[in-house]
Fold this sequence. Notes:
Layout: E1 2-6, H1 11-22, E2 27-31, H2 37-42, E3 46-49, E4 63-68, H3 78-98, E5 103-107, H4 123-138, E6 143-148, E7 150-152, E8 159-161, H5 164-167, E9 171-173, H6 174-186, E10 193-199, E11 202-203, H7 204-207
Parallel strand pairs: 1-2, 1-4, 2-3, 4-5, 5-6, 6-10, 7-9
Antiparallel strand pairs: 8-10, 8-11
Helix pairs in contact: 1-6, 3-4
The chain binds NADP nicotinamide-adenine-dinucleotide phosphate.
Amino acid sequence: xKTLVIGANGQIGRQFCELAHQAxxxxxxxxxxxxxxxxxxxxxxxxxxxxxxxxFGKAFYGCDQVVFAAGxxxxxxxxxxxxIDLHGALRAIDLAASLGVGRFIMVSALRxxxxxxxxxxxxxxxxxxxxxxxxxRAARVPHVILKPGRLTDEPATRRVATSLxxxxxxxxxxxxxxxxxxxxxxxxxxxxxxxxxxxxxRTLDVALA
Length: 209
Ligand SMILES: NC(=O)c1ccc[n+]([C@@H]2O[C@H](COP(=O)([O-])OP(=O)(O)OC[C@H]3O[C@@H](n4cnc5c(N)ncnc54)[C@H](OP(=O)(O)O)[C@@H]3O)[C@@H](O)[C@H]2O)c1
């Protein structure tokens, strides 16, 4: 029972892969380039080459769960937002559904459902995340949608909140997101769930029940 990690070489992706591997959760890291393989090989983590703008269907074989932590990032334009955050995500969801993958865990974004309330520069990104989330909800694949707030590089506390009211702030560390993904990857019983994720005071067991 293997989990395919899409966006494995990213900041959240690497932390999740390392945690999952240490916890004995079988994973396959999808990366874009052979130059990225060494980091994973040094840790004994299986990799597969795949690009969301190209062919990546073979990456799914033998995997019964997907963690989607890929993103076009802040240094590219709306063209990449369209091709990666939207079209790449839709293709990954469709592949998972057609191959009968047991569960799809999506890293979305806080307030993705309200693109028009985002700053101008972020609107295409929020619209892409919103559309990908809607596609996942409608797909024939059990899913969990995780909606982190503004990402920071603070260390893990493993204490989180699931609403802005509870957190009092819109930030969450990438490390806490990685721990939340590990929690969700192991909790196979959780499906058709959506969680806002912010730094907070509750344990993952309690907050993501
Ligand atoms: N920044 C925020 O405040 C914020 C808030 C909420 C949610 N998010 C979401 O959080 C997620 C991850 O964040 P992060 O900080 O870990 O991002 P990151 O470090 O930029 O990682 C993104 C990953 O996506 C991969 N990727 C990009 N284009 C790809 C393609 N065509 N095919 C396959 N993989 C591709 C990148 O690959 P390479 O390593 O090869 O470049 C990278 O590994 C993203 O989904 C983002 O939308 C961000």
